[in-house]
Amino acid sequence: MIESNLPALQVVLPLVAAPLCVLLRRGSLAWLVTWSATWATAAISIAILLRVLDAGTISYTFGGWEPPWGIEYRVDIVNAFVLVLVSVIGAIIVPYARRSVGAEIRSEQHYLFWAAYLLCLTGLLGVAITGDAFNVFVFLEISSLATYILIACGQDRRALVASYQYLIMGTIGATFIVIGIGLLYLMTGTLNLADMAQRLSTMPLHRPQLAALAFLTVGISLKLALFPLHLWLPNAYAYAPSVSTAFLSATATKVAVYLLLRFSYSVFGQSHVIENISVEAVILALSVAAIFTASLVAIFQDDVKRMFAYSSVAQIGYITLGISLANQNGLTGGIVHMFNHAVAKGAIFMLLGCVALQIGQPLMAQMAGLAKRMPMTAAGLVVGGLSLIGVPGTVGFISKWYLVVAAIEKGWWWLAALVLISSMLAAIYVWRLIEVCYFREPSPELEAAGEAPLSMLIPAWVLVIGCIYFGLDATMTAGTAASAAQSLLEATR
Amino acid sequence: MRGYLVLRVIAKLLIPFILVFGLYVQFHGDFGPGGGFQAGVIVAAAIIFHALIYGLPRTRLVVPEWVVETLVAAGLLLYIAVGIASMLMGGGFLDYSVLMHDPVHGQHRGILLVELGVGISVAGVMLMIFYMFAGRSRTPDSEK
Question: Which of A8, A23, A62 sits opposite B73 (nearest CB)?
């Protein structure tokens, strides 16, 4: 019974745990519920991935209504990969979060924070797993609304403004997405993504299809913070509680990237729309712009969380760059970078949470001499930083290797050069942090501080070790990403 | 509203009827217009009406905030419980047909329970929003 209902349980489990947290009304009990639900969810996602690798696409129908009429959950290798990414990160953060949430959020709000965390996880997993276009929108809204709460919980009063800013931008994005889906429904008469793709492939080109693609691309780009639409992200990440930042930076934008992949490859892949308009060229240009401007801005930030938030915008640029290259290696690079960036950024923001526990909002000046007082935290930050640069032996190298190879395959030497030059920019901002942490005398704030508690360091270091392990042995990550890329490319004409 | 005797008496008379009408809309939803969402709003409106006439502090005694919060969670939980029950009874998630001995009764029972869940949650959320806004003091600093 459990076996056949796995796709439903993947989403239902965190969804059922969220109201439980509210009913229990006690922070510690809610944490325990969250802990068990997220780890079970992670186990389910791994089971699903193994089944997909073994037996191919899984389809699950709701309420006994056969697709394309009913809602279908459809798991192929692409979203199985995303499900594992989101749910495993979601699970690793929970044991870490006990202390961090305890320090940063008012204790009478703890159970509500956990409910919002679980709802956000539900929404993200739902977006990734569903095969129904309107369901995508519904889950996107569930995750977005929960995200606004997670951000607004921050101690800094600017968190409220950041959350409000994201609320406005996110709602515009969601509106664009629902307009796009509405136009597609108008043209095809179906909401099932697979059915939609098939009907689009036999249809002559009509203007509403073009408009739908445009609305969807812009809406999703807002959600994933592609370059000119990224303005909500730096403040949201900087002022949100450490736990929210770590969770959102590792998962939320990745799910939006998945949506971009799903719509531009699976749904529109065989239609006449894609032949007539070069979305790739636009995304390519924006990605390169994102990588350079965001990296440059990151160099001049004094708030370390904000610096890494800008770095996130740049790193998302690498992911979309891979998508826009639209060949086997490029797509593999983009997809594997979703995972690699999630691991590296998750680790960095978790370690910054350790710093925040000891000294509050981590500013550059206050982190001086961090290595003397918190050696494990500082060492982890170095490894995470090296991954962002793409030093061989870390995860960042794997993704950049694929991207550079893909660019060279296309004969675009200038693009390969740009990817390498941009890594230098990452090296500058990471080096700034290393210099401050290792070669300065401890700041007055750090003078009295000791190392962060083990309950926070161990989960963070699991991700740090992940940065190195998956950088040395990429057979699992890059292998899965390669077959995901292959299945996406097969669906296009 | 201490002086307005007529308003207070009429409110006392009307509120039970509004609540019963809410229940009617809730459970008659599969034969006529209505359903969980509308019913939840009507029930919440009855309590908001009480707050308008008798004042928020007295309403908070009748329906405390923790009850409202519990309603929000309990409704959602009921909805999901129906889905899980249908999974346990051998169907898929929210496959009502397996809930009873024959599919027609099963569908009937399923949608009734799910809509009840929706009704409870909607009533809770409406009240929560009202409490949040009505409970805000004029100056932000006087709050705690």
Answer: A23
| Mutation for testing the B interface, residue in A2, A3, A11, A16 having most B CBs under 10 Å | A16
- E strands present in B14-141: none
Domain borders along chain B are 5-142
Q: Could you give the ipTM of this predicted complex?
A: 0.90
Q: How many CA atoms lie within 13 A of A88 on its CB side?
A: 19
Q: Which secondary-structure segment (H or E) carries A75?
A: strand A72-75
Cα separation, A412 vs A407, in Å, equals 5
Angle at which helices A77-104 and A110-129 cross, to 10°:
170
Burial B52-66, CB ≥16 within 10 A → b, else e: ebbeeeebbeebeee
Point out the domain boundary residue: A234, A259, A277.
A277
- Does one domain contain both A315 and A440? yes
Same domain, A222 and A326: no
Which chain A residues are within 8 Å of B94, Cβ to Cβ? 62-63
Could you give the CA distance from residue A169 to residue A222 in angstroms, rounded to a whole number?
A: 7
**Domain co-membership, A230 together with A257:** yes
Based on the fold, state whether residues A200 and A286 are members of the same structural domain. Answer: no
Neighbours of A182 (CB within 10 A): 17
Q: pLDDT (tens digit, 9 = 90+) per residue, A373-411?
A: 899 999 999 999 999 999 999 999 999 999 999 999 988
Q: C-alpha angle with apex A220: A219 to A223, nearest 5 degrees?
A: 95
If asked whether residues A269 and A287 sit together in one domain, one would say no
Following CA atoms B39, A14, A117, B112 in sequence, which dihedral angle do they give, to the nearest 10 degrees? 0
Q: A259 and A295: one domain?
A: no
- Please answer whether residues A143 and A127 qualify as being in contact, where contact means their C-beta atoms are separated by less than 8 angstroms: yes
- Confidence check: pLDDT of A170 > 90: yes
Residue in chain B nearest A61 by alpha carbon: B92
Residues A438 and A490 placed together within one structural domain of the fold: yes
Give the residue from A277, A297, A315 where a domain finishes: A277
Domain residues for the domain of A338 are 280-493
In sign, the C-alpha dihedral spanning A422, A426, A428, A429 is positive
**Cα-based torsion angle of the residue sequence A255, A13, A465, A242 in order, rounded to the nearest 10 degrees:** 70
Whether A265 and A318 map to the same domain: the answer is no
| Average pLDDT estimate for A235-262 | 94
Note the pLDDT tens digit of each residue in B5-28.
999 999 999 999 999 999 999 998
B 32-91 near A (Cβ less than 8 A): 66, 69-70, 72-74, 76-77, 80, 83-84, 87-88, 90-91
Model confidence at A65, in pLDDT bands (50, 70, 90)? confident
Q: A343-352 burial by CB neighbour count: b if 16+ within 10 A, else e? A: bbbbbbbbbb
DSSP string, A12-59: HHHHHHHHHHHHH--HHHHHHHHHHHHHHHHHHHHHHHHHHHHH--EE
**Hey, which residues does A238 pair with through a beta bridge?**
none
User: Where does the pLDDT of residue B139 fall: very low under 50, low under 70, confident under 90, or very high at 90 and above?
Assistant: low
Residue A431: both structure tokens together: 């080096």
At a CB cut-off of 8 Å and minimum separation 6, what does B67 contact?
none
Total domains, chain A: 2
Region A109-135 average pLDDT = 94
